[in-house]
Give the backbone structure.
Amino acid sequence: LFSNAEPRGELLEILLDKFPYYVLGWKDANGKLATDYLVTNWTVDNKILLQTTLEKWVFSRLERWCAKSWRSLMTPLVNTLLSEDDKDRRMTVFVETCS
């Protein structure tokens, strides 16, 4: 899905709704997370998919925990990540966001 030449948002939405969030933490045979492909292969479509993934993976869990203060800390990190054009800086912000 994430390494496909033409990733599909509708399919991602279905998968994120059907499968538990921890699957996004699984690494493939190359030792990469699904989100690693989105961060390293930066396109407009992948940016949208990453935003959708982070909203479902991070923010929806925060809302269930009533962690509004943590969400206010995470939102600027995600916005910085999504607006970053430099690949190395984007990867650094991504690691900060997920840690």
Notes: Residues 44-64 form the longest helix (21 residues). The mean pLDDT is 79. Helices lie at 9-18, 34-40, 44-64, 68-83, 87-98.
